[in-house]
Design brief:
- The relative contact order is 0.22.
- This protein has a single domain, classed as Rossmann fold.
- It is 42% helix and 23% strand.
- By secondary structure, the chain is of the alpha/beta class.
- Bound molecules: guanosine-5'-monophosphate.
- Guanosine-5'-monophosphate binds next to strand 5 and strand 6.
- The site of guanosine-5'-monophosphate has 14 residues, from strand 5 and strand 6.
């Protein structure tokens, strides 16, 4: 069995975070801690949820070629550290929570990565979920919704498309995909 990069992607609000938490909870998959320039939200810990760094530090990482992929969402940078991922891959499979464009960029840098896109059962359900996130202002929310359409148009480029209807069923499906890919020779 091999260790794999297992990427969970999809539009904002589709439930990537919940799935990544569930799948990394058992310890079999290690969560790839990304760097970001956005401020921590309540309860988020540096080095656990993200490495919270300044824009200057982020630019220095870009210049040094430290990222497997990086992106800017609405003014904040997010990036996957090559060193972090490669170090963890020696011990275990690694699970990543990336936006759709970031996932496709990662595949270019690391073609063996397995990409899953999570889709909402319908767009209205996604809208409702995004509206429940009180951590965002109205204009931030509108920006995120505008991006959803574009992200959904890229779904054919993913290895697996999974509709996130019921949490338990989605988790089960993702575990099946993971095991299938891990056992692939
Ligand atoms: P949030 O600010 O809500 O934590 O994340 C915003 C978006 O950034 C989410 O879609 C999340 O999947 C994505 N994201 C988190 N880490 C990375 C990363 O390292 N690279 C890229 N491209 N996107 C990321």
């Amino acid at each position: 069995m091999r260790n794999i990069l297992f990427v969970i992607s999809g539009p904002s609000g589709v439930g990537k975070g919940t799935m990544v938490e569930r799948l990394s909870g058992s310890g079999e998959l290690i969560f790839s801690v990304s760097c970001t320039t956005r401020a921590p939200r309540k309860g988020e810990q540096d080095g656990v949820h993200y490495f919270f760094i300044s824009e200057e530090e982020f630019q220095a990482h870009i210049a040094a070629g430290d990222f497997l992929e990086y992106d800017n969402h609405f003014g904040n940078y997010y990036g996957t550290l090559r060193s972090f991922v490669e170090e963890k891959l020696k011990q275990s499979s690694v699970i990543l929570d990336l936006d759709v464009v970031g996932a496709l960029n990662l595949k270019r840098a690391y073609p063996e990565a397995v990409l899953v896109i999570l889709l909402p059962p319908d767009k209205d359900a996604l809208l409702a979920r995004l509206e429940k996130r009180h951590s965002e202002t109205e204009s931030q929310m509108r920006d995120r919704l505008a991006r959803v359409e574009y992200e959904l148009s890229l779904q054919d480029k993913f290895d697996y498309v999974v509709v996130n209807d019921r949490v338990e069923e989605t988790e089960q499906r993702l575990r099946e995909i993971y095991l299938q890919e891990k056992n692939r020779v």
